[in-house]
Write the structure tokens for this entry.
Amino acid sequence: MDPVVATTSIRKIVTGDVTYGLLNPEQASQFYVQIYDQVPWSKLHRKEKKTAKNGEVDGMALGARLLRAKTEAVDDGYRVAPLFARRTYSCVRLKLPWEVSEETFTDNIEGERLEDKLMGMLTTQLGLDLEDLHWNGDTADVSPDADFLTLNDGWWKQLLAGGHVVNGAAINGGVISKEHFFAAYRAMPHKYFRAGRVVWAMNPATKISWVEAVSNRATGAGDLALLGADAVSKPMGFDIVDVPSLGDGKVVLADPQNFIAVNTWDVRIRKATEGKSAVMNDMRYYSVFLDDDPVIEELDAAVIIDGMTLA
């Protein structure tokens, strides 16, 4: 479905109460596309849409070194079977409510067309918030942002608990260096490099500090020989993906397809212009509801650098 048509279709549902704001599967699918197209990492990771809020997502692999010799006219009974790995998920119901005064529509030069812009703002903010929650969610958080972060346990917490963790504080006094990246590379089981999709994930500040750490060294030529000709933007030949939600000094080495955002088809966008509150306050009320859970298919296939400081 064309994104413009999809937005119009979603808006039509918002304006009516017949379906109680429930998007049909095609509209829900396009809605998720619009949300996940907002940030680079979200374009790359795997998305699974489910009917049930709780269940399992499947992963499949074939293993390695499977070839065998063929003997003429003989079936030796050797067979290869796919290896299936299952990860449980448990989606949390999320909401994003907002309100706009009726005067906003009458005073704005775009009038009723302003609602289309509001829908665009909605999808943009949802995309940013979901990426943040997917990485930083922590059900044990007690910070001022706990109302947001405790919604779910994100990928970073999952990797700290079960992935390969490089203690950045123990290398080069904790200050970012090429040794941190070599340590992360060595910690990754080499079989996961074969698909050719592994990337580095870090926020822009960490990326700039990496550039400074490499470019300021007196042994620049030697560094290029070790790290690759394009060492600045592709350490050891792997692209860098900007993930603004990651904290300073936090780095991930992984295949983005190993990270899964599980959502259900139950997406609802509601709008209220009638009722006591709307009439008395002269307001329009909107809210979007969706189910979400971030899971990792294979914890063994990811490495993080934690405790590293920037130069």
Notes: The longest strand covers residues 283-296. The chain has eleven helices and twelve strands. Residues 160-258+299-306 form a domain with the hypothetical protein PF0899 fold fold (CATH 3.30.2320).
